[in-house]
């Protein structure tokens, strides 16, 4: 019995195991069924996807075809645009060439060459110009201003030379300043300059005109330069007037200074004429100049440069190497001629040699040095061109001239 009992128990236990296995199998079957159902759904999705992909496959060539067609169209448009641009550039070049020809012809017709000044185009024209054209205008007008400034230097040099000349002929600084006024240099005017163009702001960028600032700058600079030129022209005219006044004054003064005067004043008279017969130390000779009496102060017959001062003369009856002439002053005039003032009681200092003297400068005091005679001035004149002595002359002073042919006595 016991054995059956054991076997029953074993069978019972195996039955439970089998039941459990059945449950597990059922559970597995259920899960498999679920999976299988899921698999079914996926198949459906895959099939749908496949259909879509196949449809896309058909659509892509159609799209590619469309893109290709669009590409051809775009190429066509670009090509047309490019041709149009080239056509425009050719037309512009032809127009510019034509305008240039018209400009040249216009210049020839009006007789104005390219150097005869540059006129700034009207505001309306300036507003229509691009950066390059504006830059071109600016360069030309700047050149114009530079040309004027160079002329200023030339005018100032002329004025300074005239100042020196007028001073040489005895005009005082005050008198000169009264003529010159304030026209030297820029005559007190300030030339304007425009600050640089800066960078375009957002507004410029949005409006698509990134050059607007540059254009505004160029236009402002053109206007300022034009303004400068107007101011400079005005002063240039004043400078020309000053130069004319100074030149005319200089002519007036030099004419006066180069017109011979009687060295002893208007009431002076000749006491011994030119080339009268003389006898000294038993020898005959011709009087080489004229003897004059009048004022005591000796003036030069005209302005000139002191060539020589002979301060050595007869002292206490002694004759020197300059025997016969005594103390004398030699002056060379602007035309080269030379005048000699002899027998002076006293003369200007030897230091005056090389100095420029005017008609109202005193050369010395009338005396009788060099001989035994009443005080008088012995005046000799030479042409200043050294050459064969005919008639006999004093060393290198050139040919002797009759003083009465130069001076009214
Ligand atoms: Zn004499």
Q: Mind explaining what this structure looks like?
A:
With 409 residues, the chain is of the alpha+beta class. It folds into three domains: 1-116; 123-257; 269-405, Glucose Permease (Domain IIA). The protein has helices spanning 2-110, 123-128, 131-168, 173-180, 202-207, 212-257, and strands at residues 269-272, 277-280, 283-286, 290-293, 297-298, 304-310, 327-333, 338-344, 346-347, 356-357, 364-365, 377-382, 400-401. Strands 1, 4, 6, 7, 8, 10, 12 and 13 form an eight-stranded antiparallel beta sheet that branches. The protein has a three-stranded antiparallel beta sheet with strand order 5-11-9, with no helix packed on it. It starts with a helix and ends in an 8-residue tail after the last strand. The structure holds zinc ion. Zinc ion (ZN) is lined by residues 272, 287, 289, 291, 378.
Topology of helices and strands:
Elements (H helix, E strand, L loop, with lengths): L1 H109 L12 H6 L2 H38 L4 H8 L21 H6 L4 H46 L11 E4 L4 E4 L2 E4 L3 E4 L3 E2 L5 E7 L16 E7 L4 E7 L1 E2 L8 E2 L6 E2 L11 E6 L17 E2 L8
Antiparallel strand pairs: 1-4, 2-3, 4-12, 5-11, 6-7, 6-10, 7-8, 8-12, 9-11, 12-13
Helix pairs in contact: 3-6
Bound molecules: zinc ion.
Zinc ion (ZN) binds next to loops.
List keywords for this structure.
3-stranded antiparallel beta sheet, 8-stranded antiparallel beta sheet, alpha+beta, Glucose Permease (Domain IIA), about 50% helix, about 400 residues
